[in-house]
Amino acid sequence: MEFENIIVSVENNIEYIVLNRPKVLNALNIDTVSELREAVEYAAASDEVRVVIISGAGGRAFAAGADIAEMRELTPEGGREMIANGKALMREIELLDKPVIAALNGYVIGGGLELALACDIRIASASASFSFPEPSLGIIPGYGGSQRLGRVIGYGMAKYYCLTEERMDAARAYELGLVAKVLDTEEELMSEADMIAEKMLKRSPAALAAVKESIREGMSMDMDSALMAETRIFDRVFSSEERVVRMGRFLESRKKSLSLQRTARA
Ligand code: COA
Known about the structure:
This protein is α/β, with parallel strands linked by helices and 266 residues long. The chain contains eleven helices and ten strands. It has helices at 30-45, 68-72, 76-95, 111-118, 145-153, 155-164, 170-175, 186-201, 205-219, 223-238, 241-265, and strands at 6-11, 14-19, 51-56, 61-63, 100-104, 107-109, 121-125, 129-131, 168-169, 181-183.
């Protein structure tokens, strides 16, 4: 796939999406957001892609936010279009029936943080730092960041970081549950992303999609409705042939390892 602002490749059932505007710290201009939407839509339609990994090129940033130079020139109507496009991208990632991993290095700012928040799994290198500096620019996070941050780190902390613009380092992001793991180097970050993806490739794709759906749906419901949604989704995967095959495979492998142990003891 040929793009101007991102690099996309598919290998071993993993779609790699690399934000590639290093001269401007991978700032997300309108074209980049549109290209990202195409890459995510490709993942949705492709039988080959089963996991997506998003990262940033250049070693200094995942993404330093929306492109301020471009945004400065937009009319309010242009701003509405930009926000609709960005919001649609984030929602497409959230609704994608495949897991999306954000591998975060360097600056993860504004729209970059919003993109990370839309992903299912966030891991970071020790160099990563996170912030929402929008109020300094006279705006608020508009790609869903002001809604998703609180759902990840809690209401009070989301207000603190959005209102103060304080930068969070990787250790603090880990403490708050914004990232699941912190790796020492960018190299280790990328190989950890691969390892997580490869583990997920061994799971049932339908079950992974169902986990994603159940957690996402439940987040915006009261407990009784959420439990009903979980039951509906459980019933769907439990009724599948794949469930019978996978459970059978597990029991078979147990039998084999027990008989190997018995032979070794005899
Ligand atoms: N939009 C457009 N260009 C951006 C950008 C953004 N969000 N973030 C960085 N850049 C550009 C800079 O203008 C600079 O370009 P130049 O070399 O043509 O001047 C280049 O990226 C490198 O950034 P620079 O500021 O020189 O690097 P730094 O190490 O001194 O500072 C940051 C890094 C991230 C602290 C600083 O670039 C910054 O504050 N960026 C804006 C972040 C922001 O407010 N994002 C939210 C947008 S809603």
